[in-house]
Amino acid sequence: MSAVQELLVLPLALLALQASLCHGACVEVDSDTEAMVDKGFKLGCISCKRRGEVSATATVDWFFKASNDTDFSPLYSYEEQQAYITDSRFYGRLDWNGSKGTRDLQDGSIYILNVTFSDTGTYKCQFTRSLLYGSHVFPSNTTKIVYLNVVAQLTRGLASILSEVMMYVSIIGLQLWLVVEMIYCYRKIAAAGEEALRESAAEYLAIASESKDNCASEQVAE
User: Fold this and answer.
1) pLDDT per residue over 36-74, tens digit each?
2) How many angstroms from the chain centroid is the CA of residue 134?
């Protein structure tokens, strides 16, 4: 391996090592708010930890207020990797869909099986997190609200349609740009090749002319 190849391989090796040590980024995405009756639905709830290097533990509690209720009632709890359904209306219909295999919860989503019209209402997701700074524990709470509407048939909103159209327009635009770049590069390479051929031909003619002149000079000298 040449010295140039070694200089190219070293940064790539360091980059691969750094990538292997990285963890997936946490992004707080809002939950969908429209569910179809008799189907499953994910109630999304994500609370990202602001200091990724700090150890933490967290519990997640869900509360539910039906459309005809006045107050929230406990619905679901997840603590120490154990789930507890506390609302009899949801017995056998809730599954944990959040962070797994860790006490440092950042995704507290749950999944509702066999959605019914009575599931329409307001859901409250509450993170109770303890940040561990050595011997000091810093508590913090985060609450997110999801307004769920259960319908017989899902409808596509205008924003969804526009986003899909923009996605296809972007894909086509990128493909056209790539074709233009390929044509430009091909022409540039072809022009460079022709120029190189002309220079080689000129150099060859110059050498041939010089050799001819040298031969003529030698014959005159003889």
Assistant:
1) 999 999 999 999 988 777 889 999 999 999 988 999 999
2) 32
Instruction: Tell me the chain's radius of gyration from C-alpha atoms.
Output: 34
For residue range 132-159, list pLDDT tens digits in order: 887 888 999 999 999 999 999 877 655 5
Adjacency order of strands within the sheet including 41-43? 41-43, 110-112, 94-96
Sign of the torsion formed by the C-alpha atoms of 93, 147, 43 and 39: positive
